[in-house]
Design a protein that fits this description.
This is DNA-binding response regulator, NarL/FixJ family, contains REC and HTH domains. One of its GO terms (molecular function) is DNA binding. With about 230 residues, the protein is an alpha/beta fold. The chain contains twelve helices and five strands.
Amino acid sequence: MTGNTTPIKVLICEDQELVRTGYLTIFSAQPDMDVVGEAADGRAAVEEARRLRPDVVVMDIRMPILDGIEATRQLAGPGAEAPAKVLVVTTFNVDEYVYEALKAGAGGFLLKDAPPAELVNGVRTIARGDSLLAPAVTRTLIGRFADRLRPSDRPAREKVVRALTPRELEVLEQIAAGLSNVEIAAKLFITTETVKTYVSRILTKLHLRDRVQAVVLAYQVGLVSGTG
């Protein structure tokens, strides 16, 4: 990183003051980050994000007045004029709405007990325009809702299968399992650059914004399940 790099502008949206202060301390200590604002409820999060135009919005799910899912939808959903980059930070054992947050437009999620270095890396990842899924919990977290979310008919699945080559489908399944590009490359015996090419093609063909949406779609149409 060079000295001319513009700091990543971060907006912290968290109703618990102690947690919010912790985030502020962590992010403010980074030479490439600038905390431009804080919000203690969802409505304030939306207002501050629109006013401050941060590079990354760190969003809690459970907040008063307006929850983090709806706030994310307003900031990053299909109707957003200038979609914000949202990183959801959640408590895995409590929040059962991460799927909805990802569907609403969040760029990824992390757990609240993630170490500081992981939180910092998460903000940098989202700021770059990449998506972020916590591989260790992706299958469990989204998979636990798979049966509920999967449509009863299969036209959507058939459409996806028709759009992708067998190899692209294989890569999509690995993405949905929470594997990184490096892990997919090792498993399929191809290069990381080749994986990146496949991922790009998959997103383009399916009209998806990022790999988070690819994971959601894979579960929705039943390409993968939450078991196994």
